Amino acid sequence: MSFFATRPLLPSQRSLRWVSGLVLWCYVALHLSNHALGLVSLGVAEAGLRGWAALWHSVPGTVVLYGALLTHWLLACVALWQRRSLRMPWVEALRLLLGLSLPVLLAAHFVGTRWTYETLGASPPYARMVQALARPENLVPLMLLLTGAWWHGCLGLHLALRGRAPGWQRWQPLLLTAAVLLPVLALLGLLSMAREVAWNAALGAASSLPPLPAVRRTPQQLAVADALEDALRWGWLVALAALLGVRWAWQKWQRQRAGSPIQLRYPDRTVQVPRGHSVLEASRAHGIEHLSLCGGRARCSTCRVRVQGPAAHLPEPGADERATLARVQAPPGVRLACQLRPLGDIQVTPLFQPAQPQLPVRMGQERQVAILFVDLRRWSGLAERQWPHDLAWVLDQYFARVGAAVQERGGLANQFIGDSVMAIFGLQCDLPTACHQALQAAALIEQRMEAWGETFRDQFGQPLDFGMGLHAGRVALGQVGYEDTTTFSAVGEVVNTASRLQDHSKVVGARLVLSLESARWAGVADALGTPEEVQVRGRSQPLQVLHVRHPSQHWA
User: Fold this and answer.
1) pLDDT digits (tens, 9 = 90+) for 456-488
2) Is the dihedral of CA 83, 87, 88, 93 positive or negative?
């Protein structure tokens, strides 16, 4: 049985990190939300605190919260230990720095709240806590703690879900607004409650506040609290420094014990790295562009590489790598660069390349143009089997090839919808030239897609296929959309017809279906055979069309 078929009986580090982080993120979100209730009134915030405390101060809540906290910190230390290089994208570095700094800020807050509650058996109401927290020497560390923890969690969610959740990119502006707004509302809520307490005290209306039980600490208890706070803060700093020091000494000893470094042979260079480095770490350390959309946590397969070398130099995949490779049906010899730590010299070939950016073009008028639609085939089946990150990479590669071919032939690829591309020709030329450019672009698209198809089947287990439709005529050009979300596009019957002709290419098994009218404008109608009359959905009259099985054989 293949190792891809085995499933771990215990949760993986990735699963534990995800679950524990989500618990802590929910805790911080509730904490900030409860402070924000102070914008309504102190009484509302006090009521929220009672419900919030009942949840987390219960035995199950305490076990879940502190279990998640210890698990997350332990896994962070393990991840830091396992890193052979501290080179990483700035987003990952920011998330790591925020996470490592939180225990320093958390020490005072923990001693002043939960430890006081457990030792004295009473939790002071919001009125008393607000009076203490509103002081600048307490407010600044508190907001740094909550904001740092909040943004650490938000960055973790973003890195985990940006390619896995279908609506994440669409809702990202709204989610970013909420992520920025919640800490601001929490700060304003604290200040509002402090002002309410001061106002009530000035009016002599303190009796209207909830009764404040006497929570007095003796000098001995204060000394113990101060000592505990210092011990927690300095204990973490010493432990972190010890971890980094032991990690550095261990890696140095490992390099000396392993002897000479190993060689990784890339297509364009050969690099040397110590044994124990992952292929992704080697790429980053030597400035080699290497795609990894999930940040190197086996949540996608965009870092996958084809490896060649002795079997003794390739350790068995771990549970996370096995699951990802099985999901994408990776062929033999393909591994995840973020997980593979070679034991000897091997040859590696990154299979995914970073996408190239597209440059938008904008203008607006009514004009005669040629419209070309391109559509991927079998996309639904591919989407069912592959990781979202991998599908995003496929679309980037597909859009880059089609967009570049269109641009090189004088057109504008203006809309990328799902797995379809719409291109406009004739924005700066007459209609006959536009139709000829569109046919040349169709031929160039076929050439580049067929070249890509040679490796696509090996990577994704299915052939690469596509179809195109072409029509020409008068359209309205301009910005379409709503408010700030607009795009340059063409509107009219010509656009709808070109899209329907692309659909018809599936029926006739041709790469390109074009209207007889557009073929005549391009001057190629006589060379393409006898036209066929079809009924196009959305048109009252049938349309004469021509089929071209392989455009590259006509206009390459």
Assistant:
1) 888 887 888 899 999 999 888 887 777 667 778
2) positive
Half-sphere exposure of 536 (CA within 13 A, CB side): 27
Which of 89, 79, 90, 18 is closest to 303 using CA atoms?
89
10 Å Cβ neighbour count for 442?
27
Task: Report the C-alpha gap between 532 and 525 in whole angstroms.
Answer: 12
Q: Which residues contact 233 (CB under 8 A, 6 or more apart)?
A: 103, 104, 107, 108
Percent helix, strand and coil across the chain, each to the nearest 5 = 60, 15, 30
Nearest CA to 110 among 244, 238, 235, 16?
A: 235
Nearest Cα neighbor of 342 from 370, 304, 315, 317 is 315
> What angle do helix axes 90-110 and 59-82 make, rounded to 10 degrees?
140
Beta-carbon contacts of 145 under 8 Å, excluding residues fewer than 6 positions away, are 102, 105, 106, 109
Tokens of 429: 């030329």
Structure tokens at 123: 């939790």
| Bridge partners, residue 512, by sequence | 468, 548
The 10s digit of each residue's pLDDT in 279-288 is 998 888 888 8
The tens digit of pLDDT for each residue in 114-157 reads 676 666 655 556 666 776 666 777 778 878 888 888 888 888 88
The 10 Å Cβ neighbour count of residue 94 is 14
Phi then psi dihedrals of residue 375, to 5 deg: -140, 135
CB 298 within 8 A of CB 324: yes
